[in-house]
Amino acid sequence: xxxxxxxxxxxxxxxxxxxxxxxxxxxxxxxxxxxxxxxxxxxxxxxxxxxxxxxxxxxxxxxxxxxxxxxxxxxxxxxxxxxxxxxxxxxxxxxxxxxxxxxxxxxxxxxxxxxxxxxxxxxxxxxxxxxxxxxxxxxxxxxxxxxxxxxxxxxxxxxxxxxxxxxxxxxxxxxxxxxxxxxxxxxxxxxxxxxxxxxxxxxxxxxxxxxxxxxxxxxxxxxxxxxxxxxxxxxxxxxxxxxxxxxxxxxxxxxxxxxxxxxxxxxxxxxxx
Amino acid sequence: xxxxxxxxxxxxxxxxxxxxxxxxxxxxxxxxxxxxxxxxxxxxxxxxxxxxxxxxxxxxxxxxxxxxxxxxxxxxxxxxxxxxxxxxxxxxxxxxxxxxxxxxxxxxxxxxxxxxxxxxxxxxxxxxxxxxxxxxxxxxxxxxxxxxxxxxxxxxxxxxxxx
Lengths: 273, 163
Prior knowledge:
Mean pLDDT of chain A: 79
Number of helices of chain B: 1
Oligomer: heterodimer
Helix content of chain B: under 10%
Largest sheet of chain A: 8 strands, antiparallel, barrel
Number of domains of chain A: 1
Radius of gyration of chain B: 22 Å
CATH class of chain A: Mainly Beta
Strand content of chain A: over 45%
Largest interface: A-B, 43 and 35 residues
Largest sheet of chain B: 6 strands, antiparallel
Number of helices of chain A: 4
Order of helices and strands of chain A: HEEHEEEEEEEEEEHHE
Radius of gyration of chain A: 24 Å
CATH topology of chain A: Porin
CATH architecture of chain A: Beta Barrel
Helix content of chain A: 10-25%
């Protein structure tokens, strides 16, 4: 308990001090920061405490903003399962990857608003191995003890994703997503159809559902004054009225905000540092 | 947004806890669904089925004293030998039949484990049995579902005289 108390205190102090982590933001000027976001799926660490099988897993997720509301995404991970039951022992381990796009459906309220509500899709693939060191079956005639050697397998699947991502502190994001998965193809095995596939999850359901809880850090490579438009009102294409909206959002206290009107001035606001 | 995140996160933790993968709801018992009949014209008054050379108490696989035209029993096959023998006692007479098979142990699911799947390749029988008809040579854990549809894997036609 003292450890938990210490952790909670640390989190509280971090939250209190969070405005201090500005990462170079000027106090009087509001910028929109963009860059690749790299995170880990912390739900993978919770699995061993919930599921019956001994499971080791980690997953790294990364995305990059494209035209404001689109986030091309790459996810890679590794999963190992050691499932010791009364009548069999099953081992399954392998690496997986997913590529896809998240589309933000949330309207950004201000330049500093980076919270996302997103839908997306993924294409996933996995290379894994499975092995059954022991399997037994008993009936009227006796008991059969058997084993099946290690075999290398592969699988491909698609995913539909819905989730939220919120900026808890500058550049530090927390979010979750729920996923419906569709197995497209997998290596056939005579004796053992894998009941779990790294990255896909359990295959007992025709449409396995999964979720992820992500903690991610955005590397603020660029800053801009452009507020992406919500997709519902015309996507990221911009009109003159949109430009006027942006000017209204800028901090009135900042005397340097003499951006004027026009696309060329907008380009000067994109800075790399 | 932070409020929404906080609010909905526990819901997903509940979803996470709904992992009910530890109960087996499928059949993992592989049986040959066998129908015994005398051309459906003569009642079988009583029937008892045992494994060949299995004469200990408790070795009875099926027993019925209710007269009926058709009797159905689920019979297990050997796990190690390539043929399995059964002895049938019907209306006070006994007969023997053998089923030749190949076997393959397959994983059913994480919760149910492994079960054998057989393919019947041949049969032979003693004189009290007229013939054996194979309706479905594939025997697996789902074969027991044939009970519900009044189906069978094999039909054993007994050669019983009128009492």
